[in-house]
Amino acid sequence: MNTRKSVAIVAAMLITAAGMSGIANYSNAAADSARNPGRASAQVITTLPTIQVSPSAEQLRQLRNEGNKDGSAAATATNNAKMPYYSFAADDASA
After folding, report:
1. Which helix (H) or strand (E) covers residue 77, if one does?
2. What's the domain range around 92?
3. Residue 43 domain-assigned (yes or no)
4. Domain assignment of residue 42, yes or no
5. Is the dihedral of CA 7, 10, 12, 18 positive or negative?
6. Are 49 and 92 in contact (CB under 8 A)?
7. Apex CA 21: angle with CA 39 and CA 6, to 5°?
8. If you ran DSSP here, which 8-state letter would residue 78 be given?
9. Are residues 33 and 70 located together in one domain of the fold?
10. What confidence score (pLDDT) does residue 6 get?
11. Does residue 80 lie in a domain region?
């Protein structure tokens, strides 16, 4: 093997080692910053408003019990007419 080939192989190995160490250092620095965030990068997480669903479970049980007491088809139709629509409004919603 002549000296040119030896120098080329050593140079290629050094370039590869330098590139791999650079990638390793970069990924370690990124992992460290993700593990230990500074105070400046802290973000406030806002939550969604509380949602009130109507009819509530208690209202549905009450309607079901009224239908079971009468037992007739007419009573069921009347109970369906009394049942309010579903509303998913937030507490701070203006109506």
Report:
1. helix 73-82
2. 48-95
3. no
4. no
5. negative
6. yes
7. 170
8. H
9. no
10. 92
11. yes
Give pTM, 2 decimals. Answer: 0.35
- Residue that is written with structure tokens 């290629």 in the block: 12
Determine phi and psi for 16, rounding to 5 degrees. Answer: -65, -45
What is the CA angle 36-42-43, rounded to 5? 140
Task: Please provide the DSSP assignment of 5-71 as one string.
Answer: HHHHHHHHHHHHHHHHHHHHHHHHHHHHHHHS--GGG--PPPPPPPB--BS-HHHHHHHHHHHHHH-
The pLDDT value recorded for residue 95 is: 47
Give 13-71 pLDDT, tens digit per residue.
Answer: 999 999 999 999 999 888 887 777 665 556 777 787 777 777 777 888 887 887 666 55
24 neighbors 65 (Cβ within 8 angstroms): no
